[in-house]
Protein: Outer membrane protein OmpU
Amino acid sequence: MKIKRDILTAALVGASAASPAFSQGSVSIYGVLDVGTTYNSNIGGGSRKKVETRHEPSYWGLRGREDLGGGLAAIYQMEQSIAVDTGVANGFSRQALVGLSSTRYGTLTIGRQYDTIVDLVAVDPPRFNSVTGVHVGNYDRTAGVYVNNVIKYRSPTLDGVNGSLMYSPQEDGSSTTNSGKSVGASLNYIQGPLRVSMAYLKIEGLTLRPFGDTGIDRLFGVSYANQATKTVLSNNTVLGLGAYYDIAGWRVLGQHTNTRLEALGRTEKMRTTALGFTRDPNDVGLRPGAGFNHTRMAGSTWNTAYSILDYYLSKRTDVYLRVLHQRASGTNQVAALYLEGPSSKSTQTVVGLGMTHRF
Structure:
């Protein structure tokens, strides 16, 4: 017994002696777990009930930081998507980056990370209500989208102003990355209850599924017969402006985006205006919210209304009831709420009840 006690004492002393070598670094685990039941009035001609994530994306991540002295730190971040309904994890499919951060000069990161349009998420009404309310097809990327092999710089905040610049060289393409280069910039002004954000992005080689994404059956002069038919954009250019203002315990939000899509030697333009409100995001208790998006492209229009009753049991845990409805118009145009799949007619309604926990 004495030998065992001596071994344990030596191990504890050794750990204590070694710990100062790591005292300047920190690692944190964080994430979101969201799941609920969803009813969709029409997907391809029939209603559907599902258990899934649709209020907030579910994921977990690691965030690390090592103090290098003089206000400089080495940082890293990795995030893995997870489907709470099935427990299936999708690798580190979200952010995976490493970089340097300076209190004086800003932050430089390299890896898979958000493009510059992510700065508009904070002023986007749908994101305070439900991911399903995201602008049609997310072609303006306001849901927050990742790009591989990005070099990104974010400035420090001076007098309420900060911004970012990004560049990505040509890479293999997929639906969320690019087979060509990308460049972007953003600028934010945050002062008291007001935030104003603008962002620009030009990205080459995105792969889209026009009918599956938006319910449109003709784009760039080509017919798209089913959800699986794809096209590759030579360029996708997005310019967006948005703002919110906090007043009397409420947050009022507005946003407008112009998106230019180029493929097959032709150009299409998508324009979306979004307006909405929510209860102060720092409140515990009931946080009702509602919003509306209007989108136009290629002779088609989509009008999407959404609302939520969100009750925060604490600052990290809430239960919610969400309702979304989209009406589309245009030749052969059908409704297609984000990530839900196209309807067989011009309308589509989603009702969901669920729970979210953040850690």
In short: Residues 1-23 have pLDDT under 50 and may be disordered. The chain has two helices and 21 strands. The CA atoms of residues 99 and 109 lie 4 Å apart. Helices lie at 2-18, 210-214.
